[in-house]
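Case study.
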Amino acid sequence: MSIDESTAAKVAKLARIKVEEDALPALAQEFNAVLGFIEQLNEVDVEGVEPMVSVTPMRLKRREDVVNDGDQQDKVLSNAPDAREGFFTVPKVVD
Amino acid sequence: MTDLTKLTLAGARDKLRSGDVSSVELTETFLAAIDKADALNAFAHKTPKLALERAKAADVRIKQGDAPDMCGLPIGIKDLFCTKGVPSQAASRILEGFKPEYESTVSQKLEDAGAVMLGKLNMDEFAMGSSNETSVYGNAVNPWRRGNDDAQLTPGGSSGGSASAVAADLCLAATGTDTGGSIRQPAAFTGITGIKPTYGRCSRWGVVAFASSLDQAGPMTKDVRDAAIMLETMCGHDAKDSTSVDLAVPNFEAMLTGDIRGKKIGIPAEYRMDGMPAEIENLWADGTAMLKAAGAEIVDISLPHTKYALPAYYVIAPAEASSNLARYDGVRYGHRATLGAGDGITEMYEKTRAEGFGHEVQRRVMVGTYVLSAGFYDAYYNRARRVRTLIKQDFENVFAQGIDAILTPATPSAAFGLGEMTDADPIQMYLNDVFTVTVNLAGLPGISVPTGLDSQGLPLGLQLIGRPWEEGDLLNTAYALEQAAGFVAKPAQWW
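After joint prediction, the assembly is written out as follows.
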């Protein structure tokens, strides 16, 4: 499986990372180096082997489905690059 | 007058309790040492004011006789841990200016025990790297040098600042985190001890997530006893991390008897890599002989899927990273790109993430995105998770044969020069974790212990891998190895 520039551009788009056109060939090459390394996994016979879900055989703890936190709008917004009137602010999303 | 910075946690604890020294004195000594060591670039954010406040409070507790082991002991905290009101950036530009409103569970436990935070430690960006060269703060530098050569060496990564700070006596100990070897490899490169506990021992809450199914916090210390003391404080069940285990935490220090007679130590054939330097091979053989002389039984074992651990890791870790790092979008915290006229929300995301993430982080996020994308999910991600099952089974099989611990080299080489790997293929850098990454994939505890020097005078370490949840037994085996190896070398001070 080889990655070309258009696939690299598509992946960058999916990852929401802007990659300039002239950086795509090098990026595609790096992907291919990493994927070439990963391809070794095809040598392994995984027939009938379950994909690992949890490394420790434990059932995740349940907790009561109740509100146990909240009411701290100032703290939630304190690190926002742009917060106004108690909200996070972003560029216009809906026309 | 003894040099206070040279103390161990245990030694300083005893001096505090006997009243020989106060936490404030100890803290001031370390703050002065840190200020003289900017050349190492180990501390990314210094917190002297906070440290002195905590030291004063610790002194009161010690006087009152209410002093847990860590009380009054100055330590460093890796930048990956969120610390309330103190910059916590994961060494990334994208978290520039971020000051958490909360404290990570592990650093809170240390604070509650009275430990004194001296500051935040340098690391690879988002813990992605093996040389501390991907940090927005610049490289952390290893206090060790090759003989009289003044070339700067890497302290390893990702916990490079932690390793450098402990090795250079800028703090008594430090927290690290380990996703593929990020505690054990830098510990080995700097002649210190580092343990990654069993997955689930330490709460991950408030630790910036890289690969959630692999990440574990652990202590980086001057010796095994200190690792036992600090680990005990760091671990324990936390309702805020659903993968944190609800098991009693033993008194690890009390388990250090040094008696390993009758223990079965496995030597895995697959860790004898082609082209392994003779020095590493000799170090390994020496360590094996030391454990045998201490009364352990040495058993040749096989972990047949070892070769596939790194490729499986480089599917699973980027996949999880691409999901975890989706939260850095320029909306809730950290950096937001300056937008042009007409830029919408998608441009905001794309520009913010391009500016905020460094090259290695971008690469891993995109590799993760690719292996999770429609059409490739089964071929890459599910296959890697199947291989992970097989890697874990390898270990289960040898433990079922009665093996108590496994001895391997910690790293394939000694510390290399900063910049030496810049032009290398990314895979070359990934190979640093070849002996450590299996342990993360299998969720096991692993510890790196310094046991020798190479021909250039650089430290080398061995790794011991233990059974799940048996950190106490593992630490005891490491303690026996440490006593036999008698590693006492320190870097000559040049900074």
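Observations recorded in class. Chain B has 15 helices and eleven strands. Chain B has a mean pLDDT of 97. We will return to this complex in the next lecture.
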